[in-house]
Every structure is written in structure tokens, then in C-alpha cells.
Design a protein that fits this description.
Elements (H helix, E strand, L loop, with lengths): L1 H10 L4 E4 L3 H8 L11 H10 L3 E4 L2 H6 L3 E4 L4 E2 L5 E2 L1 H11 L7 E4 L7 H14 L8 E4 L9 H7 L2 E5 L2 H14 L4 E3 L3 H32 L3 H8 L22 H8 L4 H11 L1 H13 L6 E5 L15 H10 L3 E5 L5 H6 L3 E2 L10 E4 L19 E4 L14 E3 L28
Parallel strand pairs: 1-2, 3-6, 6-7, 8-9, 10-11, 10-13, 11-12, 13-14, 14-15
Antiparallel strand pairs: 4-5, 7-8
Helix pairs in contact: 1-3, 5-6, 9-11, 9-12
The structure holds nicotinamide-adenine-dinucleotide.
Length: about 425
């Protein structure tokens, strides 16, 4: 996310230095190339601002900060094994800039943080290292990054930018900075904590909403109705915004940020239960598969789609990983395919690589992403196939050969092709996050 921001800021006239600890990333940027292949417009943007002399990269954070007016930090804060925030990257990034902090500098955190960290954890760390006082000598603010991979430049043009400082002067300076680099609306918030909480509230809302959709999907299976039809019907009421059920929520945002909230407020029961509900979807899918096949021992199974969602080469928190692990635990022989991953990546996910278009003896397919490619499956290559478990309800409309049974998430074999508008699939009435 840092690189598209650098391009955006450079295009608005700022002289940008990109700092990264990875020398290969730095070398690529200094050669005018993007190390991120999939983001539309990014390669062209990097080439453009590099050629214009507005973008350079370095591993020397302190030197870069010494010559800067504004610093934006967007290194990850992940979770440790106990689901507590893992600050290792952010702490070291903050320490690495501390030697360059000077009077008049504005430091902005864009990484999603637990509420209170900008003021309580990072500003004091910078003060201690620099001997300067935040809000009087230098300025510290939080402004959440809310962009969606694959649509970053489009989002930058339209998403309102939330900004909150640890004091009024920090907030004002950070808002002025964003005003100079974004065409979208700038929303000055009362404090850093309000801006931090807004990001966690937005993403946790989506996790909770998806958990409700998953609960509804289980009930739909019980009563034999199609959850997609139910959701489309419910969402035709303007106040209903039910998201999509699925085999689980992946990526390093939606399944992670509720834990940043729970790390500070473990008593928020709805948040905690929703996380557990969404994580249990893999187990639910495996139970369904087991029941349909009469057991999984030695059953050859193909998992389609390992990245956390189609079109984004990112395995972080992908539900494909527990899916493969648990299928194997139940005795299945697991193969996998993902158009964005090579054989080595698939090996690392503990599955046998399958090559698209090969004949194979799979008895079951589980889709973990909604890649459109799956609609082009050539069933003549899979003569032993008995079951498709449609983990994203994206195959409701496809023709299946006789003898291949279907199960979706809250969509049953005999409901999948029945819809309210005569077309299988989701009507595009409202945008709804699904994972
Ligand atoms: N990717 C998304 O879809 C997305 C969306 C919205 C917000 N965000 C926010 O952005 C943060 C970063 O996400 P990302 O996708 O850009 O992560 P990423 O892993 O793609 O990139 C992080 C970069 O930081 C570098 N890095 C690590 N430690 C460093 C240090 N001490 N100093 C300098 N560089 C260091 C890494 O080498 C890497 O190049 C997330 O934690 C999240 O809060 C991401």
C-alpha cells in the first residue's frame, strides 16, 4: 500500500522517498519499477514519477526523515499466536525513523492500530528517542488506510480521508497534507483515537455482518431455502445490508482487526463470537463434504483458489491454509490450483500442485475463491468427480454433469438455479463485502 501512496503524493508535486527494509524492493523502485505486479496503474505510476525525478527509495530511514517534512508509516501490524498485536515491524520502523525526527516534522500513521496506540505507544517512543515534544516540536496523527487491493487509485480519488491528531495542531497539519495530495474529501476528526477506532469499527462491522450471513446460511441449509435468494430479498429493503456468506474470511484486514479491538476490549462478545463463527466455516464445509462422500479417508480432493480472494496474490490469513490442513487431517489427498501461484507456493501450502487442464481422478472439488475461471471447468477431464463444494456460492449457475452433486454455503443442490430474477448469481443491487 505504501508504493501507490508514494505515486499519488508524487503526482501532486511532493518529492517522495520510499523507505523499505527490503533491498530488493528499494532496488526495483530505484530502477523505476513496481515490485507489486497486480495493482492496476501502479507499474505505470512508478515509472512515471520515477522518470520525473519525484520518487527514489532507500533503506536508510533516519536519513530520509531528516530531509522530510512529512512521514507516513504503513508497515504491517499483524497478530501473534495468542491473537495479540504483533508490533515487531512497526516498532522497528518507528525506531528507525526516530534518529531523523526534527522540529516541524509531521508523522502520520496509516497502518491500522489498536485504539490509543498513536498517542500512547508511538508518540512517546518518538519523543524519547528525539528529545523533542510531540504536538509542540513535531506533530503526530493517525489516518487510516482504507484502500481495497486492485482498486487503489480509484479509491484514492473518491474515499473520504479520515484524519485525527494527538492534538489540534497535529490534526490540522496532517489534514493540510492530505488536502495537498488527495482530490477526495478530507474529514478532520476530533482526535487520533476517533480515527483509529473508525477503521476498526468499519472492518469489524463487516466481519460481524459476514458472521450473521454465515449463521443465516446454516439455517437456510436446515430449512432448504437458498440463502442468496433470502439475502437479495432482505437487501431490497433500503436499511438491510446483509453481506455474503462463504467458507471463511481471509486477508490481513477483516479477520485481523477485530482482534486489535478484542486485545483492548475482550468483553465485546458480539465481536468475539463473530470471529469464531467465521473461522468455523471451514469446519462446517468439511463436515458437509464428509457427509456427502461418506468420509474423506484417501479421497482425492482439489482445492481451487488459495489466495485470500481471487485476483490478489496474497496468502495472509487465507482460509485455504486451514482448509488444506483439516482436509489432510481427515485423510483426504489434497491437490490445489491457483492461477496466481506456482508449484512451489502450492507445495508450501502443503498441497500437491494441480495444473489447469490436466486430467485427474478427484472425487471432490472445494472452491475457496470466486475466480471466474472455475466456471470454465472441463468436467470431461474429471471423470471420477462426485461433489462440488462451492465455498463462495459463485458456481450456482454452472451446468454440472449427471452424477456430480452440488453444495454451496446456504445454497443447496435443488435451490441453486432457482432465483428471484430468473438468473442464477447475485444481482448487483448493492455492493456487499463477502470476505
Ligand atoms: N493491503 C491491503 O489491502 C491494505 C488495505 C488497507 C490498509 N492496509 C494497511 O497497510 C498495512 C501494510 O499493508 P501492505 O499490504 O502494504 O503490507 P506489505 O506486507 O505488502 O508491505 C509492507 C512493506 O513494509 C516493509 N517493512 C517491514 N518492516 C519495515 C520497517 N521496519 N521499515 C521499513 N519498511 C518495512 C516490508 O518490507 C514490505 O515491503 C497493513 O498492515 C494495513 O494496516 C493494507
Amino acid at each position: 500500500m505504501g508504493l501507490p501512496l508514494a505515486v499519488q503524493f508524487a503526482r501532486h508535486g511532493w518529492q517522495m522517498t520510499a523507505v523499505d527494509i527490503n533491498p530488493e524492493v528499494v532496488a526495483e523502485i530505484n530502477a523505476g519499477r513496481s515490485h507489486v505486479a497486480e495493482e492496476p496503474g501502479l507499474a505505470e505510476g512508478v515509472a512515471e514519477v520515477h522518470a520525473a525525478g519525484r520518487l527514489a527509495a532507500t533503506t536508510d530511514a533516519a536519513a530520509a526523515v531528516r530531509g522530510a517534512d512529512v512521514v507516513v508509516l504503513i508497515v504491517p501490524v499483524m497478530l501473534d499466536d495468542a491473537q495479540q498485536p504483533d508490533y515487531r515491524y512497526m516498532d522497528s520502523a518507528v525506531d528507525s525513523i526516530a534518529g531523523g525526527v526534527h522540529r516541524g516534522l509531521t508523522v502520520i500513521f496509516e497502518t491500522t492500530l489498536p485504539v490509543g496506540d498513536t498517542r500512547g505507544r508511538f508518540a512517546p517512543r518518538l519523543e524519547a528517542a528525539s528529545g523533542l515534544k510531540a504536538e509542540t516540536d513535531f506533530f503526530v496523527a493517525f489516518s487510516p488506510e482504507r484502500l481495497y487491493s486492485g482498486a487503489v487509485f480509484a479509491n484514492l480519488a473518491t474515499y473520504p480521508k479520515l484524519v485525527g491528531g494527538i492534538g489540534p495542531e497535529s490534526g490540522r497539519r496532517a489534514a493540510n497534507f492530505y488536502d495537498s495530495v488527495l482530490d477526495a474529501e478530507i474529514v478532520a476528526m476530533s482526535c487520533a483515537e476517533a480515527a483509529e477506532f473508525s477503521k476498526i469499527a468499519d472492518t469489524t462491522y463487516r466481519d460481524v455482518n459476514i458472521a450473521l450471513a454465515n449463521d443465516f446460511a446454516r439455517y437456510a441449509d436446515r430449512v432448504g431455502v437458498d440463502i442468496q435468494e433470502v439475502i437479495d430479498g432482505a437487501n431490497s429493503q433500503p436499511y438491510s445490508h446483509i453481506h455474503q456468506p462463504g467458507i471463511g474470511v481471509g486477508g490481513h484486514c477483516i479477520p485481523v482487526y477485530p482482534h486489535l479491538l478484542l486485545s483492548r476490549a475482550p468483553d465485546l462478545e458480539v465481536v468475539a463470537i463473530s470471529r469464531r463463527t467465521n473461522d468455523a466455516q471451514v469446519g462446517y464445509a468439511i463436515k458437509t463434504l464428509e457427509a456427502m462422500l461418506g468420509g474423506l479417508d484417501d479421497v482425492p480432493v482439489l482445492v481451487l483458489g488459495l489466495t485470500y480472494r481471487d485476483g490478489v496474490k496474497e496468502l495472509a490469513y487465507s482460509r485455504a491454509l486451514p482448509l488444506i490442513e483439516r482436509l489432510s487431517f481427515h485423510g483426504a489427498q489434497v491437490s490445489a490450483y491457483d492461477p496466481l501461484l506456482g508449484d512451489e507456493d502450492i507445495d508450501r501450502c502443503c498441497a500437491t500442485p494441480y495444473h489447469w487442464g490436466e486430467a485427474a481422478s478427484f472425487r471432490a472439488i472445494v472452491t475457496q475463491t470466486a475466480d471466474k475461471l472455475w466456471t470454465k471447468l472441463d468436467f470431461s477431464l474429471l471423470p471420477n468427480l462426485e461433489v462440488i463444494l462451492d465455498g463462495r456460492n459463485s458456481l450456482r449457475a454452472i451446468e454440472l454433469p449427471a452424477g456430480v452433486r452440488y453444495a454451496g454455503i446456504g445454497v443447496q443442490a435443488d435451490t441453486r438455479r432457482r432465483t428471484t430474477n430468473g438468473q442464477a448469481g447475485r444481482p448487483a443491487a448493492k455492493p456487499a463485502a463477502s470476505r
